[in-house]
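User: Could you check the structure of this?
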Amino acid sequence: MFYQAEECNIVSNYSTFFKQVQKTPDDIFLYQGSKSYSYREVFDASLRLANYLFHLGIKKDTRVVVMLPNIPEMLYTWLALSRLEAMMIPVNVHYKSLALRYIVDDSSASAIIYEAGCENDVVSATNILNSCEIFVGVGPCKYEKTAEFDKYKEKPLFGGPYRPDDDDTAVMFYSGAATGPAKYAKYSNAQISRNTNDFLHALMYRAREILYSQYPLTHFLAFIGVMNAALNAGCAIAIGDCGDMSIFREQLQALRPAYLLAETGFIAQMNLLDKDSLPDSLRFVLTGGGRLKRNIQQEFTEKHGIPIFKAYGMVEAGPLLSVNSNTDKPYSIGIPLRNVSLSVMKGREAVTDNITGEICLMASMLTPDLQELLKRDIQDGLYHTGDLGHLDLDGYLYFIDRKAYIIHVRGFEVYPEQVEAALSKHPQVKDVVVVGVPLDEDSESIHAHIIPESGKRPDEKNLTEFLEKELPRYQIPQKFIFTNHFPRSATGKVVRQALK
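Assistant: Sure, the predicted structure tokens are below.
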């Protein structure tokens, strides 16, 4: 079964929103808990905010770091900055001061809009930088330089000139730096429009239906797949506090969304819900940005009867590159979006037929500044992403692992995901991460870090005997390490380097 949408045209965030307001001003655009906001209400709030930000000094091309959680103010800010033709730099609210300082400094941002809970990190990150001059805080902020966000409500609607160009930069994304220095990419109005259009061509959103986002709106997947895509399709966006699963379940039952965008870790939490806890209105769950283990996906689908689709992308290209909408290929990350050209390379040869190789993109997809920045990863006109995958006979792409995570054992290549998948079948293993630790110049030792199920530590001999039935001998870990958590980045990915 496929989910596909009709082709659509997008100009820019604000102009698209303006058209929707003209067509359906009283339709609901945003839900938060029990509150709802119409297109007209969000339109007015964003224009008042644009006026307020303009008088604080944010104008066309101003670089603005936005560090907000999934709250209405995030969407007001997104639309207000688009109206001002400023450059938005979304940052996860869990970033600490050093990571935030790098982004503020590297991007030359002169303004930052943040939530009060981030204030200590914001102040620490910017106190030695001269570029950041404008601070706007949501909630009870104490920093003396910070303007109160809610004062926008006192302002009239902004009526300044609006002449956006296709080539104007709309957003600047930074990667999570899980495997090296943070990469950045600037995307123009035209690039964001095309990527959103291509996403919607692959995955249908229907007008007036509800899309619930647990996924952080500051991530490029939600930026394209929630805010831009829902706006263009005429959907309503639902956001809420998902820390309490009982509240989350109640919200879903009350709102009855058709689509849910969720982090991979959150899907594992949804497996703890009772069967039939999710509303029958839910057509599919979309995820990406992290590895969803096959056993977790299988459990979810069998328990809740709802398909999970995966999207694949990266900050430096696309940013969305593929999305799966085929229920017959549940573990695929889909086929490339239109305007995306990729291949799987083994050495200098393109391979198909389920042969594992490196996922490569046409270097021409990268902007000129990125082509210069990433030139050491470009060979024969192809950008080598560092991701490993394979294509099946129907052209569907499957993600295997990061090239940097391959473990070399006496001449063999071991993919951690394969070992993790086997260990996940053990009834006393709740979660597992496998890493390679240097043994000598030519080989590594396989270490499995395990979170036990219900805190009961499994017997190491039993684990080894279990794996002998699942894996060849060279793939079996030499060491089992038991823990109650894994170190994670601000974006929720396991920091494997910290486990070595």
